[in-house]
Specification:
alpha/beta, seven-stranded parallel β-sheet, globular, 19% strand
């Protein structure tokens, strides 16, 4: 039986109080946020990172201790239970001061496993959840096994404490767009399995700006009718090279991809996946799109608003990052 802890007391996780932690998050935005938040939580170098094996995690976690478990599809309860077993084996042979997760399915595996071993647990809801918690967040909230935090003041309260947002550390700058040549455009659709995004591909083709200087990283979407270079996935070096060679980067409104672009200084054009078109499990990308536009750290649009003008305007902007503290204009 797992004993609930008193989650009314806030865990003292700060850089001034370094701790060895179990840090667990699914791929995409979840692991990207946790990597950026971990230094501010005081995670030591001997902390153990739990995620799925992917080009993203191999890049983000290349200098860290890792436990890579098989991919868990959205709402895959059997896969979650298998991950619990693997995580519990790791917890049985070493001690941790705290367990922290930013979701999604791995949060529901790692944090209960940690509590079973008497390890204090913290769940930080994804910044993409602007209006309220995700399914994983709701489950953990009702379990009372972890301290709960949101990155949005609008719905913080009660047992949902407020955690500084990862998006507050970025600001926008102008840059000189290219002249006298076609735009070099990089299209990256993320790593989520089981969901195509053909509507975005078609909308980009309709702008008339796609050509031989376009690079497409399509993930689960497969196409044989595209100009330029087409790949399903990229290793970290190839991805970084494509970013820095591009004048414009177009992506889905997935927080993991967006965070990676922001940290690379890229002003992203993000397009919302919709569940009604079978492009994602739900419509939470609309929330992160609204947040992007509110904070002006990118341009987020619905599929019908993908135009040549949007891409041309993005080519004249870039992102500046800070040392992990909120940018001056956000303080």
């Amino acid at each position: 039986m797992i004993a609930a802890r008193d989650t009314s007391a806030r865990l003292d996780l700060t850089p001034d109080n370094p701790r060895k932690m179990l840090l667990a998050a699914s791929t995409g935005g979840h692991i990207a946020q946790l990597v950026r938040l971990a230094p501010g939580l005081g995670a030591t170098d001997d902390s153990l990172w739990v995620s799925f094996d992917s080009p993203q995690t191999r890049s983000l976690l290349r200098d860290k201790r890792t436990l890579l478990v098989p991919y868990i599809k959205p709402r895959d309860w059997r896969g979650t239970l298998k991950a619990v077993g693997q995580i519990d084996k790791a917890l049985a042979v070493e001690n941790f001061d705290a367990a922290v997760s930013t979701g999604a399915a791995l949060a529901t595996a790692a944090l209960p496993a940690a509590r079973r071993r008497g390890i204090p647990a913290l769940y930080i809801e994804s910044v993409s959840r602007v209006l309220g918690p995700s399914l994983a967040g709701r489950m953990l909230y009702h379990s009372r096994l972890a301290e709960m935090r949101t990155q949005h003041r609008s719905w913080a309260g009660g047992r949902w404490g407020l955690h500084p947002s990862v998006l507050e550390t970025f600001s926008i700058e102008d840059r000189v767009p290219p002249e006298g040549r076609p735009l070099k455009i990089f299209v990256t659709l993320g790593t989520i399995q089981g969901y195509r995004f053909d509507t975005l591909v078609d909308a980009l083709l309709a702008t008339g700006l796609m050509g031989e200087d376009t690079t497409w990283q399509l993930g689960y979407t497969t196409r044989d009718d595209l100009p330029g270079r087409v790949v399903q996935d990229m290793d970290a070096a190839s991805f970084d090279r494509a970013l820095h060679e591009a004048d414009v980067v177009v992506t889905h409104a997935g927080v993991g991809t967006i965070l990676g672009l922001l940290e690379a200084g890229v002003y992203p054009v993000a397009v919302v996946r919709r569940a009604g078109r079978n492009e994602h499990v739900d419509d939470h990308q609309a929330q992160i799109a609204g947040l992007m536009n509110d904070t002006r750290i990118g341009t987020a649009v619905e599929i019908e608003d993908v135009t040549a003008q949007v891409l041309l305007e993005a080519a004249a902007r870039r992102i500046a990052t800070t040392d992990g503290q909120p940018a001056p204009e956000r303080r």
